[in-house]
Amino acid sequence: MTAQRSPVSLDEARLLANVNERAQRLFEDGYRIRCLDANRYLVRSQQGATYTVDRLENTCSCPFFEKHGGRYPCKHTLGWRKLLLTQRAAIARLSARWEAVEREASIEQVLQSATRVLKQGLEVPTCP
């Protein structure tokens, strides 16, 4: 026999819809991801706050997740996979563009391009 979940109120439904919407745009909102190991990721906000997401336990160290005691998923637990894939794709696009520019660019232009990439705080999230 399966356990019945209690019905979700209108306010809870709105909260969950808002969290899901925010989870879909983590990369666009300046979040970055780094793999800690095969199951844990470090998600960093543009402001520098960092949270650990455990994909197996489906937990996060963010205040939202802790406040709700894990009853509701946070944007980090919902959006980590899309963030990871989007960040990898962005790095691939930047790399391809950089290689194309580098072939005909001066050293100053290459350094300016490298500086722009570094300012974005992108790193290739290599995961086991």
Descriptive overview:
The chain has helices at residues 10-23, 63-67, 75-104, 107-119, and strands at 32-35, 40-44, 50-54, 59-60. It is built from four helices and four strands, in the order αββββααα. The mean pLDDT is 86. The N and C termini lie far apart (37 Å). A four-stranded antiparallel β-sheet has the order 1-2-3-4, with helices on one face. The chain is elongated, with a radius of gyration of 18 Å. Helices cover 48% and strands 12% of the residues. The chain is α+β, with helices and mostly antiparallel strands and 128 residues long.
Question: Main attributes?
Answer:
about 130 residues; alpha+beta; 4-stranded antiparallel beta sheet; about 50% helix
Structural class call reads alpha+beta
Name the strands of the widest sheet in spatial order: 1-2-3-4
Biggest sheet: strands, sense, closure?
4 strands, antiparallel
Mean pLDDT equals: 86
How large is the radius of gyration?
18 Å
Number-wise, the strands total: 4
Residues in helix, %: 40-55%
SSE order and pairing:
Blueprint: H1 10-23, E1 32-35, E2 40-44, E3 50-54, E4 59-60, H2 63-67, H3 75-104, H4 107-119
Summarize the structure.
The protein has 128 residues and is of the alpha+beta class.
